[in-house]
Specification:
Bound molecules: fe (ii) ion
Number of strands: 10
CATH class of the largest domain: Alpha Beta
Number of domains: 2
CATH superfamily of the largest domain: Periplasmic binding protein-like II
Largest sheet: 10 strands, mixed
Distance between the termini: 47 Å
CATH topology of the largest domain: D-Maltodextrin-Binding Protein, domain 2
Shape: globular
Radius of gyration: 23 Å
Order of helices and strands: HEHEHEHEHEEHHHEHHEEHHEHHH
CATH architecture of the largest domain: 3-Layer(aba) Sandwich
């Protein structure tokens, strides 16, 4: 057991003893028969084991709050890479109850490997739009990662379709990371779902022709290169803007963040026009030992307060509507999500990756 986990457990044990003492005190002052039964102590409640590919710091405050609320301790295992391989190696002995990951494709891989199980929860179904969860109940989005347009803050532009990136007026003015990065193959897969393979291939050729520099680096470098005058617009995830604009005044990244504004593009062909999102999400492990506790944890994570805190931890957008936003994220306006179900578009991620190679996008 790590020292932090030990301290965490110790704190819970102390808190539990205090709670017992307090409830014991109140009972001695109550009339016989009117005292409520003492709360069950969490030592009798089975813990939930969470395997997460996300930095544990992002969710720890929420897990602590969950434990305080329910008495269920969450043992967190940070699996940076190779979650499917680890589950395969552990087989039936796996202690994992909840699997938490980023990117629809990663969650779908777990489902296709047979490493998840279906659940049915009215709480989850009410909080999470149907397009952002598995119709079969195998995975659920917990936060949204909208893929947006970074724009030079001095440029007049208020409406944008992803398709516009290929227009000749943007020649030599666009920055983007590798076309093979999952953030981009997910966006390109959505383009295929909306516009078809042929139109997407042509669009990718047009976008490639408009690049100001090679498709490389990370999302934040789009802002850096807009500040540096290399490009005027680019595609990147919105949460990086939250991170950059919350850096200390005068720092390098704060300057990158302050050089841009955010426009949320739509798909030209989509009648109800929304922005492409990827997700962070979770599933219940096939061999979960504490399925009930695992479902409780997921339900807790879509509560109003948890949603707000979980999304704010990384400047993501809550999956549940009407939840309080981080101020920088709120400044981008309300997120209208592309109506195409994630399960529809993710079918095309392999084809998207093939198209990236076919047009030599990264060359
Ligand atoms: Fe990222």
């Amino acid at each position: 057991m790590s020292s932090s986990l030990f301290l965490h457990r110790l704190w819970l044990a102390v808190a539990g003893v205090s709670a017992l003492l307090l409830s014991g005190c109140s009972q001695t002052t109550s009339e016989p028969g009117t005292g409520s039964a003492p709360e069950p102590t969490f030592s009798k409640v089975a813990p939930v084991t969470l395997y997460t590919t996300r930095e544990p710091g992002l969710v720890q405050p929420l897990l602590d709050a969950f434990t305080k609320d329910t008495g269920i301790v969450v043992d967190t295992v940070f699996v940076r890479d190779g979650l499917p391989e680890r589950l395969r190696a552990e087989g039936e002995r796996s202690p994992a109850d909840v699997l938490m990951a980023v990117d629809t494709g990663n969650l779908l891989d777990l489902v296709e490997n047979g490493q998840t199980q279906a659940i049915s929860s009215d709480v989850l179904n009410a909080a999470i739009p149907a397009t952002l969860r598995d119709p079969g109940g195998h995975w659920y989005a917990l936060s949204l990662r909208d893929r947006v347009l970074y724009v030079d803050k001095d440029l007049e532009l208020d409406h944008f379709a992803y398709e516009d990136l290929a227009k000749p007026e943007w020649k030599g003015r666009v920055c983007i990371r590798s076309g093979q990065h999952p953030y981009n193959t997910s966006l390109f897969a959505a383009m295929i779902a909306h516009d078809g393979e042929a139109a997407t291939e042509e669009w990718l050729r047009g976008l490639k022709a408009n690049l100001a520099r090679a498709a490389a680096g990370g999302d934040r470098e789009v802002a850096r290169d807009i500040l540096g005058g290399i490009c005027d617009i680019g595609i990147a995830n919105a949460y990086y803007v939250g991170r950059m604009k919350n850096e200390p005044e005068g720092s390098e990244q704060r300057q990158w963040g302050d050089a841009i504004k955010v426009i949320r593009p739509v798909f030209a062909n989509a009648p109800d026009g929304g922005t492409h999102v990827n997700i962070s999400g979770a599933a219940i492990a096939l061999h979960a030992k504490n399925r009930d506790g695992a479902v409780k944890l997921l339900e807790y994570l879509v509560g109003d307060e948890a949603q707000s805190l979980y999304a704010k931890a990384n400047y993501e957008y809550p999956v549940k509507a009407g939840v309080e936003l981080d101020p920088v994220v709120a400044s981008f306006g309300e997120l209208k999500i592309d109506a195409m179900p994630l399960t529809e578009l993710i079918k095309y991620r392999k084809l998207a990756s093939e198209l990236v190679d076919r047009v030599g996008f990264d060359q």
